[in-house]
Amino acid sequence: MKVAHYRDIPAQSFNGETVKNVTGRVAIGKEDGAPNFCMRVFTIGADGHTPRHAHEWEHEIFVHAGKGQVFQAGEWRDIEAGSTVFIPGNEEHQIRNHGKEDFTFVCLIPKGVAEL
Predict the structure, then answer these.
(1) How far is 60 from 45, CA to CA, in rounded Å?
(2) 8, CA 20 to 30 Å: which among 25, 40, 69, 106?
(3) Nearest-angstrom CA–CA distance, 48 and 108
């Protein structure tokens, strides 16, 4: 069993041409003995965004804090604390902060793909 606060988990920062002001943490993953899924926590700072991309696996997302938007089928959809998002495999998507405060969400992915 593992019990931890997500802020105490080591973070990796992402900044580049396609990603801006994003911090990711593996909250529960293969190193914890999780055989089926990986739980990640991402924080996107002001004006930040994930890369626009698609892949074979699905995402299940729960928004923990802040206001953001998710790109779906050519449109930006508003999401906020308490929102849930299901992104099927092979669907193009991107997430961005749409507020002035940090935007934090939990994202689940299946085993076998890169955890961060």
Answers:
(1) 21
(2) 69
(3) 20
> Taking the model in full, what pTM does it have?
0.95
Q: Which domains does the chain have, with CATH numbers?
A: 6-110 (2.60.120.10)
| Percent of residues, the chain, with pLDDT higher than 90 | 98
* Two structure tokens written together for 2: 């593992």
Q: Hey, what amino acid is at 14?
A: F
| E strand intervals along the chain | 12-14, 20-28, 37-49, 59-65, 67-72, 75-80, 84-87, 94-97, 103-110
Residue 13 has a CB neighbour count (10 Å cut-off) of 11
